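Holo prediction. Input below; ligand is 3'-phosphate-adenosine-5'-diphosphate.
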Amino acid sequence: MAQPQSVDVQHNGPATEAAGAGSLTSSLPTREGWWTPFFFFQGFWLTPQAVKSVTLVQARFQPRADDIILATFPKCGTTWLKALAFTLANRSRHRVIDDKHPLLTQHPQDLVPFLELPNRALHLVGELEALPSPRLLSTHLPYASLPFGVGTSSSLGCRIVYLCREPKDVVVSMWHYYKKIRPDFLIEFHKAFELFFEGFSLYGPFWEHFLGYWNQSVIDPDRVLFLKYEDMMADPTKHVKMLAEFFRVPFSEDEENAGVPEEVVKLCSFENLKGLPVNSTGKADRIGGLLMENSSFFRSGKVGDWRNHLTEEMANKLDCIVQEKLKGSGLAF
Ligand code: PAP
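Structure of the complex:
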């Protein structure tokens, strides 16, 4: 591992809690390999920008008991979960079959705000505080790094949906995504695979990320709903109903009879969302300083695409580390 090094952390306006972030990163282990050095912060690899925004979120975010947090490791189906959750939670305001439904004109990523995005964290109090309850929020933060009150098992604790995915598909999705959004950062697939395998990827080690939420879902299943992308793909309607129950807006008998759960599945399906002009054209800066195509979040949307990218040896190697790291937890892929 490379020697710790300092990074220049810019401070903006009243975000004084970030003042310690520069000195904080200077004392953190750091490693190169991705487009910028990552820092090992609270047990996970983050960009300097992410260290800064996570610190801000932890200092400033005011959780509400009725907040619902959508938590994911990157490339595990965040966009899909945001679309489903938004549609379910807001269906009394926005009918699922309606040519004015927000999903038809807004990118799913924009309908549920991330807690820790750099440009958002700086306006955390203003933007997130202004949202009416119950708030629907999303995060890539590991369980242990959630701001106090989100992660605690108390009446203050928010409800959390965690979505994870077969790691072999995650690494493939991640590599394609970086290739698309960072064309100036060239990394061969086998190199990205090695880093991911070592647990060195954004918000990695992925197994620690999975386990943090998994363990909590075992202890407190009413508060943490743990889902897998593959299970959702296999039976989306069942999962849509499960999510509606978890959000405390279960489908009525009339809705069930009218096929509303199936309509939610259709509206949020990969094929439908990918084909919409708002998702297939245009660019936006969603992570602070990087303009990316809206289509970057819709690639193949398949289970098992890893077969087109990993050799048998690579697949076995990743399977072995996953088995070893998850051993005894009850979680398996
Ligand atoms: P993020 O974590 O960076 O926000 P995320 O949405 O998790 O991104 O990653 C995109 C993945 O979800 C892509 O997977 P792929 O590369 O294997 O194709 C994307 O295609 C997939 N995805 C996006 N929308 C949907 C959807 N509606 N249904 C299923 N998969 C989807």
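Residues 73 and 140 are 6 Å apart (CA to CA). That is the main takeaway for now.
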